[in-house]
Amino acid sequence: MKINNRLYRIGNYEFKAIGDLKRELIERGKEIIDLSIGDPNLPLHENIVNSLMKNIKKEGCNKYPPYDGEQELKKAVIKYYKEVYGVNLNMDEVVILIGSKEGISKIIPAVCDTGDSMIITDPAYPAYLNNAHLWGVVPEIVPLKREFDYLPDIKSIPKNIISKSKLFMINYPNNPTGALANEFFYKELVNICYNNNIVLCNDNAYGEIIRLGEKNISLLQFDKEKQCIEFGTMSKTYNMTGFRIAYVVGNSKVLKELLKVKAIMDSGQYIPIQLAAVEALKIEREYIYSMRKIYDIRRETAKKILKLYQIEYYDGNGAFYIWCKTPKSYSTHEFCKELMYKCNLIVTPGYVFGNLGYDYFRIALTEEKEIIEKGLKNLKKMK
Ligand SMILES: Cc1ncc(COP(=O)(O)O)c(C=O)c1O
Fold it and tell me: Where along the chain do its domains lie?
């Protein structure tokens, strides 16, 4: 059978492989602690549940939703951007998505032709590179390094890469490193993208998951000409990963093209889920602060144990991940495998996020503090 050649460029989805192995170990009777996937263990807010239950029964809610999203949800996103970031958006500057992963894929054919270039960082959330391959777009890789706090060193990006690329994908707060962006960085990058006709896109999936005391910032605060776009999701902030509900905001021309791709491929998220997201966005800010506090405590707990076992890590202030250096006596693959078999602990090997992740592994703080503590204390069984 003649299969699409581009799919050979895409490896098996590593998280699926990790999941398969986990199932196998559980079937063998092992008590596994899984700190690999960024799927929060926290409960749903009751307003979200109540809204969903109510609207499932509401007349008309079973119909096809509008392609660009329910008006009520788009308005709630506009209000959110105004209140949290001080950014004004119009209705044609918001599109509702079936998870931001959907938008990350569809933005590529919306902006790029086959054979065009897009800039992606290394390390990065794997969906960027995989989707570049899927759509036949050439990924131009820009390294993220510890010495630049995991921000791209803009001045060192080769000029020919800047001039030929149509899309630049960044992700702050960052998965997997936990790094945050800053005003200076955004302003500099926005300028370069303006001058080179590049659509700059920030994946702001972890926008609300920052250390208490840190300030929420959005790329769009620095995009005075409204040329950039930003993704947001209900998945991480409101523990709604399974709902598949997110949005993209920013340049209306780009969103119009994205909407074309979307209309070809799907019909929008189920209306009661969109309305549940409206309720989520209405929850008082105290809820967000208490969630940040939970992750802060988990982060501190994990860091203490990592220090105890002399595992180096990046002291990031964003997302719910800790980016750790693999101990010198192991390759990352060996280390993660031994952690699994010897310590019943699953973490994500850094190479999942790109070539520069080979020497690292990622811990997700998506379990209770006590479970994180128990899992990481098993590190004492390693060399
Ligand atoms: C950086 C980043 N973007 C997007 C997503 C996907 O989010 P969603 O559930 O909205 O598809 C993830 C999920 O882990 C992520 O880490």
Answer: 5-43+286-381, 46-283
Mutational pocket test of ligand 1: of 15, 107, 175, the residue with most ligand atoms within 8 Å of the beta carbon: 175
Q: How far apart are CA 325 and CA 341, in angstroms?
A: 20
Query: 34-48: per-residue pLDDT in tens?
Result: 999 899 999 999 999
Q: From the CB of 175, is ligand 1 less than 6 Å away?
A: yes
Question: What's the predicted TM-score (pTM) here?
Answer: 0.96
Give the bridge partners for 231, in sequence order: 203, 248
Q: Which of 35, 36, 233, 244 to mutate to test the pocket of ligand 1 (most atoms within 8 A of CB)?
A: 233
**Domain 46-283 grouped into CATH 3.90.79.10:** no
Fold classified for 5-43+286-381: Aspartate Aminotransferase, domain 1 (3.90.1150)
Token code pair at residue 354: 């790109």
Distance 131 CA to ligand 1 centre (A): 13
Per the DSSP assignment, residues forming a β-bridge with 313 are 324
Write out pLDDT tens, residues 187-212. Answer: 999 999 999 999 999 999 999 999 99
